[in-house]
Structures are given as structure tokens and as C-alpha cells.
Amino acid sequence: MPFVFRTPIRFAHVDAAGIVFYPRYFEMLNAAFEDWVADVAGVDFATLHLGRRIGTPMVTVEATFEQPGRLGEMLDIALVLTRLGKSSLTIEARFTVDGAPRLRAGLTSVCMDLETARAMPWPEEMRARMEPMVAPD
User: Fold this and answer.
1) Which residue, 1, 6, 37, 82, is most buried by CB atoms nearer than 10 A?
2) How far apart are CA 41 and CA 128, in angstroms?
3) What share of the chain is helix, strand, coil (3-state, %, to 5)?
4) Which residues of 79-106 are buried (b: 16+ CB within 10 A; e: fewer)?
């Protein structure tokens, strides 16, 4: 079952042609991932980063732009956890408007100790919440 983040395509997201300026998709992807971590892993970014000093930087992002997104459209970003490693995870993202594709993306994020800037294992309580969400092959 995918986690779905819904957002309108706003004026701030588009260029002079009225279509999403491609870097804005990565900002939207990050917002969706932030909400995914809070909902699925059970820890909001403020607590995770500022309180626990754990980061979740994206180390790989691949994207295929399928159709332009336009100002005023309602965008659904569906995230599916496809792999959960010791200190990393991989998510597939589908950006759609009324079911029509706009962007496909894959990301790999790593759990990082912000004090040492080194990868660390996912905290057990986060792992326990994420494991059931891994999509079958």
C-alpha cells in the first residue's frame, strides 16, 4: 500500500511556461519523504534531526519526467518502500495527476549520525515500523 502525499502545483513550482520547473519536483519529493518518515517510521523530522541528531540524506535520486505538470493541477505523490537495508532504504515514487503520470523517481536514503556524518543502523523502533511496509518483489 503506497503512502500518498497530495499537493497542488503552485505558482512557486512553475516556470514562465506554467509547467513545473524540474528542481521543484525534488523539493516536492523531499516534502513527501519527510511526511512518509513521520507517518511510516513514526518520527517527525524536527525530533529526528534536532532532538535525536539523526539525518536521512538522499544519496541517490533517479527521475524520469513523463509529462509536464501544470499550474493548478493536484499532484499525488505515491511512495512505496522497496528495500530496507541495515542503514539505508530505497523508495519508488510516482507523481500523478488524476492517475496520469507526471514523473517516476527512485531514491535511496541513508540513516546518518549527524555528529559523525557517518551511516548508522536504523533505530530499532523505526525499523520495526518500516519492515512491514516493504513491498513484495
Assistant:
1) 37
2) 8
3) 30, 40, 30
4) bbbeebeeebbbbbbbbbeeeeebbebe
The secondary structure of residue 10, as a DSSP letter, is -
Whole-structure pTM over 0.85, yes or no?
A: yes
| C-beta separation of 66 from 104 below 8 A | yes
Neighbouring CB atoms inside 10 A of 78's CB total 16
Cβ–Cβ under 8 Å, residues 81 and 105: no
Q: Give the pLDDT confidence of 115-137 residue by residue, as tens digits.
A: 999 999 999 999 999 999 999 97
pLDDT tens-digit map of 75-94: 999 999 999 999 999 999 99
